[in-house]
Design a protein that fits this description.
By secondary structure, the protein is mainly beta. It has helices at 115-124, 144-151, and strands spanning 3-6, 25-30, 41-45, 54-56, 77-84, 88-89, 102-106, 112-113, 129-131, 156-158, 168-173, 184-186, 190-193.
């Protein structure tokens, strides 16, 4: 039986968000029993399609790019390789990835991809590219890596928690929510390991 490794970050009021994005806020609307309610209900505020561990669709940065519902679900479920790198993912860090396989970069939580690495990945056509930081691009840049990879039709998986995950091959499940015309979606990303 496979071991399930949760690689999603926790969504709470104190989580890190991309600069300029709203911070989510959780509000308990009904507290079971304490206010006479028979159930508990939590309301989510400032929850965007890019909150927490999430997928970016090509339409996030590419005019006329595919939205999430236009992508095959198989892109978000299948073989994946976790690669440990330094904070900047270079061409030398990029493994040979077969078409239909995902690659996830563990940078220590604050890294990004170089444009050279993104160009190499766009030629290989992985099912998706993931990273354990807020963005595949360096903060403050004009999103060249987003434009390269999403322009090649490769979805991105950002804000992963790869702490303690050894480098190697896994099965990834990071299914997006079924949101109409979505440029992105939060996911519960997990790795299956033998």
């Amino acid at each position: 039986m496979s071991r399930i490794i949760d690689i999603s970050i926790v969504i709470d009021d104190s989580m890190a968000v991309y600069p300029g994005d709203p911070a989510p806020r959780l509000n308990v609307m009904r507290a079971q029993w304490s206010d006479g309610s028979s159930s508990r209900l939590t309301e989510l505020h400032n929850f965007t399609t890019h909150t927490g561990t999430h997928v970016d669709a090509p339409s996030h940065f590419v005019q006329g790019g595919k939205s999430l519902e236009q992508l095959e679900l198989s892109r978000f479920f299948g073989p994946a390789e976790v690669v440990h790198t330094t904070s900047i993912v270079s061409e030398q860090d990029v493994p040979v990835v077969a078409e239909g396989e995902a690659v996830l970069f563990h940078t220590g939580g604050a890294g990004h991809l170089s444009t050279e690495a993104a160009e190499l990945l766009s030629e290989m056509s992985p099912s998706l590219v993931g990273i354990d930081s807020l963005s595949v691009d360096a903060l403050g840049e004009e999103f060249p890596v987003h434009r390269l990879l999403l322009g090649a039709g490769i979805p991105l998986l950002e804000k992963l928690d790869l702490t303690g995950v050894p480098a190697g091959r896994y099965v990834l499940s990071a299914l997006p929510l079924r949101i109409a015309d979505a440029d992105g979606s939060p996911v519960r990303a997990v790795l299956l390991a033998d």
